[in-house]
Amino acid sequence: MASEAIDPKITVDRESEGEEEEEEEEEEVEESWDDWRAGEGEDDEWAPVASVVCLFCTEQFDSSELLFDHCRLEHCFDFYGVVKNSGLDFYGSLKLVNYIRSQVSQNKCWSCDQAFKCDQDMLNHLHVTNTCFKKDTKFPWDNDFYLKPYLEDDSLLHSLSMDDEDDENGNGDVADVKLVDRKEFINQVNVPNLEKLEDQFGKFMENGVSEEKGEENNLKVVRHGAAARERKEVDEDYFGSYSSFGIHREMLGDKVRMDAYRNALLNNRSLLNGAVVLDVGCGTGILSLFAAQAGASKVVSVEASKKMATVATQIAKDNGAEVITVVHSMVEDIEKKMQIEPKSFDILVSEWMGYCLLYESMLSSVLYARDHYLKPGGAILPDTATIFGAEFGKGGTSMPFWEDVYGFNMSSVGKELVQDAARIPIVDTIDPLDIITDSVVLHSFDLVTMQQDDMDFTSTIELHLKPSQMMDHLNWCHGLVLWFDTDFTARFCKENPTILSTSPFGPKTHWAQTILTLREPIAMCSENGRSVISTLSSKEIGTEKCPVATVRIRVSIARASHRSIVVSLEATGLGFDGKKKNWPVQIFNL
After folding, report:
1. Does residue 323 contact residue 345 with C-beta atoms inside 8 Å?
2. Are 275 and 346 in contact (CB under 8 A)?
3. pLDDT tens string 121-148
4. CA distance from start to end of the chain
């Protein structure tokens, strides 16, 4: 359902305000970037003004080092000690930070879960209670739910990095967490995120967050208030964007999408005949029209965009579909708009998928509708979804284009774009000839049984060169490409099971694929190629002189905020002689 679109809020009126407003905006941008510059002294160093917020109080600091010193001295919390004694890796450290923020917002002790009436009681308790968790125990934060940042754009999370030196040297499994330097941090944060971060902290201050320690206007109230406002703003922007007919033209023109839903609804008439159907996010109402055409006795079409709800109502009327009732509402609020019985629908249908399946998706709304309005044993269309992954070669990057532009070498531009792509996912189609490994399943969802928290997951996959690539002596892995299938399985579509696939090996769709580029390409070869290359064990693994046989990738996808996701990628190269190398974790904001 998600698609790139022109912001509908940009109207003719705004354009008519002229260049004066644009000049003011440019001045604001320049001022904000000036705030990020340290005084241009001898070191000419860059340092972010965006503060990191204490885990336990409202204090803010210019660096994570200062923050953790403060936590150790004022709150008896030794972050590095807990990480080391608990044997936490990079992901475990992220979970720990988000878990503590979640506990503190509820006035609960992070270590013993004791609840308190106020912030001060909790802080006093921390001074006398400092439990240190040991290895090989079940930690309360050991849940993929805590991969999701508790604070939007939490600067502290961006400053964590994994040190793999111990693992490389075989000195143990404990991974130290270190801080990246300031220049590297600045280079890894893109401008929109900085502006969003500055704006968010501005909102915090407007709502009474004091820089004074111990102020009763505690941070948790502001967190929840800001989160609620942001959620509302995101919903308004999201559903407002779908009032653009251009988006609906693109989706209705997606033949793969339309054929899959049409086949599932029209060619399973025993399922649809006489059924009561709920269409979540109906848009133009095309799926509702299919359902009515297939013999549904009643169709309730829910649409959060006011404009599109009006359009869908008119389209249903124009086509004589009297069984369709269009409701302008989010499905979570539908009972405010119409009287509806719980567990009263036979079929729940929705085209909820976004880029990389989960970005800007409506899956949470579909699960809400399932739990509140679908009859026991009722059908969900589609009822399963699967994310796939494979590695791609140099052709999947922009490098080949820039290496020869009308005979001129512009590869410096391509290299810069590749570095940008190592932070920000690219949504684009990829040529199947550029895929160098077999495709594997990253994660699967069963919409009948899954819960909301299952949308956050971590999976580890191993990728090997596909047979067609084994003829080449050497291949370079430049990144991971993701796509998804959604299935209308025989569980409900007994007459005509159908698959909607966004695979690069099939016809193109408006979802395309999601491309995650590695900062550093990894050399791979097959067993046959190894004998030709004569790999040298003394060379660094993953290089031309010592390519790997297998690339193991650990991928985590978590909802970073409302309708947004964060993808983390950790690559490990496995050599022919048992050697391995871990590359630094990369985090992509989508």
Report:
1. no
2. yes
3. 777 776 544 455 666 677 888 887 888 8
4. 15
- Provide the token pair at 448: 């009948």
Residue 8, pLDDT above cutoff 80: no
Rounded to whole angstroms, the Cα distance separating 70 from 50 reads: 17
Report the pLDDT averaged over residues 564-580.
89
Q: Mean pLDDT, the chain, as a whole number?
A: 78
Question: What's the mean pLDDT in 522-536?
Answer: 67
CA separation for the pair 546, 264 (Å, rounded): 50
The predicted model gives 325-332 an average pLDDT of 94
Cβ atoms of 436 and 477 closer than 8 Å: yes
**Catalytic member of 4, 59, 195, 351:** 351
Active site residue 540: no
Task: Give how far the C-alpha of residue 130 lies from the chain's centroid of Cα atoms, to the nearest Å.
Answer: 34
How far apart CA 95 and CA 465 sit, in angstroms, is 33
Per the document, the length of the chain is 590
pLDDT at 336 over 60: yes
Nearest to 285 by CA among 366, 337, 349, 240: 349
Average pLDDT of 156-166?
Answer: 60
d(CA 357, CA 513): 10
Q: What is the pLDDT of residue 364?
A: 92
Q: Which amino acid is at 464?
A: H
pLDDT higher at 159 or 476: 476
Choosing from 15, 59, 152, 360, the catalytic residue is 360
State how far the alpha carbon of 478 is from the alpha carbons of 278, 391, 421, 505, 541, in Å: 43, 7, 11, 19, 15
| Inter-residue contact 382 to 486 (CB < 8 Å) | yes
In 3D space, the residue among 192, 187, 221, 228 whose CA is nearest the CA of residue 207 turns out to be 221
CA distances from 157 to 73, 123, 148 (A): 21, 23, 10
Question: What's the pLDDT tens digit per position in 208-241?
Answer: 443 343 344 444 444 444 444 555 555 445 444 4
Is-catalytic flag, 184? no
Q: Quote the CA–CA distance of 196 and 205 in Å, as a whole number.
A: 14
pTM (two decimals): 0.64
Rg (CA), the chain: 26
Token readout for 302 is: 């829910």
**DSSP secondary structure of 336-367:** GTS---TT-EEEEE----BTTBTTT--HHHHH
Angle at 350 between CA 265 and CA 501, to 5 degrees: 75
